[in-house]
Specification:
Blueprint lengths: L2 E8 L5 H9 L7 E5 L8 H4 L7 E3 L10 H16 L6 E5 L6 H10 L1 H6 E11 L3 H7 L1 H8 L3 E5 L6 H14 L5 E3 L24 H16 L13 E8 L5 H15 L3 E8 L8 E6 L2 E2 L3 E2 L11 E8 L3 H25 L2
Parallel strand pairs: 1-4, 1-5, 2-3, 2-4, 5-6, 6-7
Antiparallel strand pairs: 8-13, 9-10, 9-13, 10-11, 10-12
Helix pairs in contact: 4-9, 6-7, 10-11
């Protein structure tokens, strides 16, 4: 019996980590290993998956669909070796970076002989943000591919969207992918049974482009042995970076800066995600936002094992220089600290 592999994809900010956390709490997900890929120099998602253990693996920074496809194969081989040594391994979930083109990932899972001897591709689950979905499909080729190649499409943030807009998005997705049911999840809640046991991926019944994409990736992989980085695969205007802060941060400064960023440059913010050590708080606070929408901060139950408690914030931006963002954040944080110090002095 081969081990089923589920590919969890969706554009930046669609809610993959939130949904994954909910899924992993379900009894039927016992024995699941998770492979997480991020685009950028600092990985955070693996710290935000609440059930972090030796079967949760952060693939090297870089995108699965280009620079680290070999890492995916090696990680799957390592998990298979653990299973042979007695570890319980019932399923693998691969959470891709939001910028990932799913075609090369699926081609790898369906063609690598060692992977095929142990694993079977069970299906592709694609998350689509109901708030930003139409604009994302208009501007991001990867998002179109993610939707077209899904076996299940899960709409998130429908509670934040106008019902007419959600209906229009569902109709558009049905045109892009005639074979995938469109489901809805609120705060990541969805029955695992609806996303598992999908019977394997096939191009039959899909729009013709799907078969073309897979064929192109098969040729690309043959010529470049899955290690070639294609500099043109992603928009050259998109870049990712991370900031690390040694000292606890004042929430007032961070919150004010996030609000300003969303209002003034929201169109350039493809994702902001952070794990923060805030002044006066013993537990970490997670933040995340996409374009003009920033979600309320969430305090986690505890710091991830081995974490050094430094604040980490990752960004994926388009046409917005790092130095502008970094200088703005530092300025707001400094102002908040100075205001707090002034308040303390005046209260003496």
């Amino acid at each position: 019996m081969k081990i089923p592999v589920t590919v969890l994809t969706g554009f930046l900010g669609a809610g993959k980590t939130t949904l994954l956390n909910r899924l992993l709490k379900a009894p039927e997900m016992a024995g699941t290993a998770v492979l997480i890929n991020e685009f950028g120099e600092i990985g955070l998602d693996h710290l935000l998956v609440e059930r972090l253990d030796e079967d949760t693996v952060l693939l090297n920074a870089g995108c699965l669909c280009c620079t680290v496809r070999g890492d995916l194969v090696r990680a799957l081989r390592d998990l298979a070796a653990r299973a042979q040594d007695g570890r319980v391994l019932t399923r693998v979930v691969v959470e891709t970076t939001g910028l990932a083109d799913p075609a090369p990932i699926l081609q790898t899972l369906m063609s690598d002989p060692v992977v095929l001897s142990v694993y079977a591709l069970d299906g592709v689950v694609t998350l689509v943000d109901a708030v930003a979905g139409q604009a994302t499909l208009d501007t991001q080729a990867e998002a179109v591919k993610q939707a077209a190649m899904a076996d299940r499409i899960v709409l998130t943030k429908t509670d934040l969207s106008d019902p007419a807009d959600v209906a229009a998005l569902e109709a558009r997705l049905a045109g892009l992918n005639p074979v995938a049911p469109v489901l809805r999840a609120v705060a990541g809640a969805i029955a695992p049974a609806t996303l598992l046991g999908l019977g394997g991926f096939t191009a039959e019944g899909r729009i013709p482009e799907v078969a073309t994409w897979l064929t192109a990736e098969a040729a690309r992989g043959h010529h470049h042995h899955h290690h070639h980085h294609d500099p043109n695969r992603h928009d050259a205007a998109i870049h990712a970076f991370g900031l690390v802060f040694d000292e606890p941060l004042p929430w007032q400064g961070v919150a004010t800066w996030l609000e300003m960023l969303a209002v003034t440059r929201g169109d350039s913010v493809l994702r902001v995600k952070g794990l923060l050590n805030l002044e006066g708080k013993d537990r970490p606070v997670a933040i995340h936002g996409v374009q003009h929408v920033f979600h309320p901060p969430a305090m986690l139950a505890t710091w991830p094992p081995g974490h050094d408690r430094r604040s980490r914030i990752t960004f994926v931006l388009r046409n917005l220089p790092r130095e502008v963002v970094e200088a703005g954040l530092v300025s707001f944080v400094t102002s908040a600290r100075e205001a707090a110090e002034t308040g303390r002095e005046s209260g003496r």
